[in-house]
Amino acid sequence: MSFATKQLGTFPDAIAPDGSEVRVLCSTSRGSLAHFTLPPHAVSMAMAHHTVEEVWYFVSGRGQMWRRSHQHEEIVDLEPGLAITIPPETCFQFRSVSPEPLTAVGTTMPPWPGESEAFAVEGIWASTVRRLRDNPAVASAPDGERQGRTRVSDPDNTLPTQRFHSDSGQTEPLSVAL
Known about the structure:
With 178 residues, this protein is mainly beta. The protein has helices spanning 136-139, 143-146, and strands at residues 14-15, 21-27, 32-38, 47-49, 53-60, 63-69, 72-78, 83-86, 91-96, 102-109, 118-120, 162-165, 170-173.
């Protein structure tokens, strides 16, 4: 048996299929824990998962979460201290309605199996998370300038293009190495 300890990172480790930033925390054979961030007033892409289930705990910001599973559908107001579940094959979409990022800590069970786990669905809000386009400045950046960032593949051009800095309230192009 081994132990895992990890500090929340400054830069995202990945971009979730829904467009939120993901900072991976710890993982075991039965589940994983990550921190998710959606910029202020942003709307995620609507998604569902084939096999994993998730439990999210909201840490900051305010927003709304839409979930639909078979014949049950609801919209829940999100605020710090609230927890929600996302069972397998549940359609979901979330949005920030505050001037600060919407952040949550989520557990995925079993751990995230890979890119094919999530699939896009029809949501109820228009997504405002912009798609990642080829960015020559990022693609040609020297390796030293990419340090601390994960290389991300985006063959469907579905990843966001901007990062929000909560300390300054400014956005900048998301520096994802292609």
